[in-house]
Amino acid sequence: MAGLVFKGVTKKYDQNEVVHDFNLEIKDKEFMVFVGPSGCGKTTTLRMIAGLEEITSGELFIGERLVNDVPPKNRDIAMVFQSYALYPHMTVYGNMAFGLKLRKTPKAEIDRRVREAARILDIEHLLDRKPKALSGGQRQRVALGRAIVREPQVFLMDEPLSNLDAKLRVQMRAEISKLRHRLQTTVVYVTHDQTEAMTMGDRIVVMKDGFIQQVDSPMNLYNHPKNIFVAGFIGSPSMNFLKVNVTLEDGIPYLNHAEFHLPVGEAHRQTLAPLSGKEVMLGIRPEFINDDAAFMAAHPDWTLEAKVEVVEPMGAENYVYLSVADENVVARFEAASQAKSLQNHRLAFDMNAIHYFDIETQAALL
Amino acid sequence: MQRAFLEHWDETAFTAHTRALDLPNLSPGARVLVRCQTWQPDISLILRNFLPQTQVFWVNGQEIFLHATPEDGVGATRKNLLPWAESLISQIHSMLADELGVLSYVYVDTPRTQGLWSGYLSLGRLAALHRRFFPGEAGLALWQAGFAQLFDSLAPERMEHYPQNVLGDKLSPELRETLQTYFRTGLSLTESARLLYIHRNTLIYRLDRITELTGYNPREFKQAITLFLALWLQGT
Ligand SMILES: Nc1ncnc2c1ncn2[C@@H]1O[C@H](COP(=O)(O)OP(=O)(O)OP(=O)(O)O)[C@@H](O)[C@H]1O
Ligand SMILES: [Mg+2]
Fold this sequence. Notes:
The complex is a heterodimer of chains A (366) and B (236).
Chain A: E1 4-13, E2 16-26, E3 31-35, H1 42-50, E4 57-62, E5 65-66, E6 77-81, H2 92-102, H3 107-121, H4 136-148, E7 154-158, H5 166-183, E8 186-191, H6 194-200, E9 203-208, E10 211-216, H7 218-223, H8 228-233, E11 240-249, E12 252-257, E13 260-263, H9 269-272, E14 279-284, E15 289-290, H10 293-298, E16 303-313, E17 317-324, E18 327-334, E19 344-349, E20 355-357
Parallel strand pairs in A: 3-8, 3-9, 6-7, 7-8
Antiparallel strand pairs in A: 1-2, 1-4, 4-5, 9-10, 11-12, 11-14, 12-13, 14-20, 15-19, 16-17, 16-19, 17-18
Chain B: E1 4-7, H1 11-20, E2 30-36, H2 42-50, E3 56-60, E4 63-68, H3 78-100, E5 104-109, H4 116-133, E6 139-141, H5 142-151, H6 156-166, H7 173-184, H8 189-196, H9 200-214, H10 221-235
Parallel strand pairs in B: 1-3, 5-6
Antiparallel strand pairs in B: 2-4, 2-5, 3-4
The structure holds adenosine-5'-triphosphate and magnesium ion.
Adenosine-5'-triphosphate (ATP) binds at residues 13, 18, 36, 38-44, 192 of chain A.
GO molecular function, one term (chain B): DNA binding
Domain PucR C-terminal helix-turn-helix (chain B): 175-231
Protein name (chain B): Homeodomain-like
C-alpha cells in the first residue's frame, strides 16, 4: 500500500510544456480523480506515474520511494484502460494469469491470485470460458481482473468507462467503487466526465491547460470552487455567471444589472461592501434559482423577472432556459413550475447561495 | 493459412519476402504498424497471442508490421473491418502499456492495394501525421487522418489564423465540449445527448447558442466543416 507525492513535476514535449509545476499528495488508499477538459494533461500525468513517459523535472514518489528513474515494471502499479483487449485463444483464467507468467510468478501463487481476483469480481464461474463467450460487462471485469492479480500498490485508470453504453457505464461505476472498498488500494482515476468524478472520488484534482486548478473533496469543489473555471466545470447544468456592479446603500451592498437590483446575502456583505463601485462576477447554480411562491413571498427583494426560452422536463424537475437582459441563465425548477416558453416569468435568486469572483483574476472572492 | 514471421529485415529482405508470399491469399484484414518507445522481446509474444490469426508478422528494431485478420465473427466486409481495425489502436496501445510498461503508438490501414511495402510506407507517413497533429492519441487510422494530410503542407501561422477567425474564444468550455462531442458522434443529436448526459432539447439549445456566437451552424454540413476544422486546428 502506498500514497503518491508529486513535487514540482513538469512534462515537456520538445519545447512545449504540457504539465506545469505539479504538486500533489495522494494518500494511501485514496481514490483520487483527475478531471478536466480534453488536452489538459490527465493522460500525460498518469503516464508519468506509470513510467511510460519520463518526468522532465521535479520528483515523483510512490510510497517512500523516488521513482523518477524506476522502470515501469518495478513501480508496482497496474493500469486499466477503456479498451479491454483480451487474448482470444486463452480462457478467462489464462487471460488473468498471462501477465503473472510473464513476470515469472510461481504457478501456485498465480493460481491463488487468479482465484482470489475471480472471487472478488464474481467471475469464478467464467474461468474456463473464452472471451468470445462473454458479455461486454464480463469482459470488462476480466480486464479489471488482470490488473487485480498483479496486487499493485496503485491502480491507474484512464477513462475506463468512456466507451461503454449508458447502462453498462453506471453498472461499472458501481463495480469499481465496490471493488476499491474491497481492495483497499490507492486509485488514480482519469475522466473528463464530472459526474463520474463527483460520484467516485474521495478527492478530485481539477486540471486545465496543464495546471492544477483545485484539489478538494467533491462537496468542497461544489460549494467552494476557487475560481470561475472550477465553478463552471463542476455541477450540471453549469453554474450561471453574470457581471454585476456593486453599490452601497445604507451600508448594504447591492448587485446591479440591467434586469435586477438585489441585496447581497447577509453572510457575504462584509466581503462585498468594500467592492462598492466595482464590477464583479456573480455565480449562481441552477438549483439556487427558485420560482416557488412561498420562497418568493419570504424574500420579495430577491426576485426578478426573466424571459423563458425553453422548458425542458426532466421528470421530477424542469430545466428552464432563461434570458436575463441579453444573457443566458439556466434554472432548475420543480416540475410544478408554471414557467412557459417565450413568456416572462418571476423568479428569485437565493442570495445566500451566490458565489462571487474577481473579473480580472477569475478567483473566488469569498 | 499462409503465415510469415520475419525478424530484422531491410528493404531488400522485405521485398524478397513479399514476393515469396502469395499476397492475394492473405485474408481480408488490416495492415498494422506498432512503434514502441522501448523494446522487450515479450512485445512480440503479447502481440502474437493477442492477434493469433495474424498472417504477416514482421519485426524490425522497435517496430512491428503486421497483416492482422480478425477472429471469425467479425465479417470480412470492408465495412466491418474498419471499426475492428480502429479498435486495435487502443487495444494494442493499452495492452503493451499495462502488461509491459511499454509506450507504443499504433497505425492501421485496411489494404486496398496488395503491396505490403507500399502499405508499410503509407503507415510510416501516417505516423508522421500523428506526431504533428494528434500526438495525444494512441495512434491513428488512415481514414481518420485524411483531412489532416491537406494541412500538412500549410505554414503554422496560417493554421493559427483560421481558428482565431472562426472561433476566437467565443465558446465556453461547456459549448466547446458540446461541439466536440457532436462532431465525434458524426452529428448525431441522440448519441451526443447521451454522451453529454443532457436532454436532446438542451443539446439543440446549445447548438443554437453556438450558431449565435460564431455565426456558423453546426447542424448544417458545410458550416459544420468550418467549425470542425477550426476546433481541430485550435487543439493542435
Ligand atoms: N507524445 C506527445 N508529443 C507531443 N505532445 C503531446 C504528446 N502527448 C500528449 N501531448 C500533448 O499534451 C497535452 C496533454 O495531453 P493529454 O493526452 O495528457 O491530455 P488529456 O487531459 O488526457 O486529454 P483527453 O481528455 O483528450 O484524453 C495535449 O496538448 C497533447 O496534444
Ligand atoms: Mg487522456
